[in-house]
Specification:
With 167 residues, the protein is of the alpha+beta class. Helices cover 41% and strands 29% of the residues. The strands form two sheets. Strands 1, 2, 3, 4 and 5 form a five-stranded antiparallel β-sheet that branches. A three-stranded antiparallel β-sheet has the order 6-7-8.
Length: 167
């Protein structure tokens, strides 16, 4: 049974997603947002109604880095699709435009909460793998006479620490 039948009957959901991006070069930011919007257009049960990508601006405190954002108005068949888009594309902001009231059955809530739990477990698994890999790398560095101190790679010497220069 698909989730449409489990949820209480609601009209399509209109929402605006704000997608933010920081990086360089500035042309790359626009291209990346265009690709993300195209990917959203390809999502099952989702229609992009309108999108606008703003011109990148240079960051004040970080020269040579740019920031921009896109406003993407979408229409989704179910609230679950909004939740999936939220996790997949990580918008900075989501505004539900309509309907004003969204009622869900317990099965509709189950779908959303199970998707949330599934994603959180996946993120937790990635974090654990990264922790294990980091610990392994630190052990290997130590075995070869190196360590990371204050975010810098240093070679341990009997007399003093010698910082390894980045090239």
């Amino acid at each position: 049974m698909n989730s449409k039948n489990k949820n209480l009957k609601i009209n399509k959901i209109k929402a605006i997603f704000i997608l933010e991006i920081i990086g360089r070069p500035k042309e790359h930011l626009v291209q990346t947002l265009e690709k993300i919007i195209e990917a959203i257009k390809g999502e099952k049960g989702v229609k992009v109604i309108e999108s606008k990508i703003n011109e990148p601006v240079e960051l004040k405190n970080n020269k040579d880095f740019y920031a921009t954002f896109a406003e993407v108005e979408i229409e989704a068949e179910e609230i679950l699709q909004i939740a999936i888009l939220m996790f997949k594309y990580m918008p900075a902001n989501i505004e539900i435009i309509e309907p004003e009231l969204i009622a869900l059955s317990n099965n509709g809530w189950n779908d959303i909460l199970n998707e949330l739990a599934r994603r959180l477990h996946a993120y937790d698994e990635m974090a654990r793998v990264l922790q294990i890999q980091t610990a392994k790398l630190q052990r290997e560095l130590k075995e070869h006479g190196f360590e990371i101190k204050d975010g810098k790679l240093v070679k341990k010497d009997d007399s003093k620490d010698e910082e390894i220069k980045e090239e």
